[in-house]
Design goal:
CATH topology of the largest domain: Aspartate Aminotransferase, domain 2
Strand order of the largest sheet: 4-10-9-8-7-5-6
Shape: globular
Distance between the termini: 20 Å
CATH superfamily of the largest domain: Type I PLP-dependent aspartate aminotransferase-like (Major domain)
Bound molecules: (4S)-4,5-diaminopentanoic acid
Structural class: alpha/beta
Number of domains: 2
CATH class of the largest domain: Alpha Beta
Largest sheet: 7 strands, mixed
Number of strands: 14
Amino acid sequence: MLNTARSEALFKRAQAVIPGGVNSPVRAFRGVGGAPLFIESGKGSRIFDADGNSYIDYVGSWGPLLLGHRPPEVIDALRQILETGTSFGAPTEREVELAELISKIVPSMEMVRLVNSGTEATMSALRLARGFTGRDITVKFEGCYHGHVDSLLVKAGSGMATLGIADTAGVPQAFAETTMAVPFNSIPAVEAAFAARGSEIAAVIVEPVAGNMGCVPPQPGFLETLRRLTERHGALLIFDEVMTGFRVALGGAQQLYGIKPDLTTLGKIIGGGLPIGAYGGRADIMRKIAPLGPVYQAGTLSGNPLAVAAGLAMLRHLSAHPEIYAALEARAARLSSWTPPGVTINRVGSMFTFFFTDHPVTDWESAKKSDTARFAKFFHFLLERGVYVAPSQFEAGFISTAHTEDDIRITTDATREFFA
Ligand code: HOZ
């Protein structure tokens, strides 16, 4: 039996001063029960909790840690920056280098603006799409999550799906009405949205591989249809690659599936584990942003030296070692090579979800048929055996380059034991 007494005591203390004891709802273990683990440190593929327990970590800070915890490349870059300053609120050379590198690896991002989180990136990209097109309506997909942007918290995934909050309080009705939510992977639903309101639609925003209702890949033709319909109706296509960028391929899902969106949002991996976000795309659209154009967006800590240095170190390492992606694919394939009875495994590269249903999971309707009570049992069973996965059926798991063959074997053995 796992001793988590110190985590439990910390959680009790936290609940008195932090709502729900956590700084983001997805950390609260509400989908699986019990008290969240308080983490003290991480190294490679492992995290260590406040009671000294060690776990193989498949959360990876919810995606950013493609190289595992404390990769030397990133830590060395951070050490150097600490000698120069943590924030200036003025331009620095490294910001230019990071923007240039992103633009080189993701060519659809002709110009890039750095922000502080994925939420800021999607919020700003959406405002830009509205400012550029002069239209107000956004099409999003049920179960997709684009951060806690007011108008995008409609039928959203991630914590909203886990907690069963369909539409959050605090979003004015008028904002929610600017969003049309349709089923992921449904070409007829998107066609119907355009047939009904095509001339009002500013943008379609999509996670090209959904990761916030668990991992749900796009079906053949889905992303192509989004590209065709947006083009035909004068709307913009926004790929939210906060999760998939530099994860499913070096150039993200747009490289993997060969689709060129108008705008892209990034976060997670491009900060190497520090807070960052970015949005970018066609130069004619990006030139509408202040100070060049009338769409205002700003930030005191945008492009801050620490996040930029960590991100640069990360992306330089990835572009110098593209073979990483084949290695990740091989390891992830091994992890998902055995499908337990009553389970559907969805996986794209190093992103995966074990859904507790024997039906294919292609959208939110099919994802939510999963047996979440059984998933909760599986979660705690793995935890007891030193394996830490996301505490919700509706989140993706992530493999890093730090995961070893041994880690995969331990995880597979634990999975087999559970189903035996
Ligand atoms: N996109 C992240 C997981 N779905 C969000 C993490 C969070 O909300 O804290």
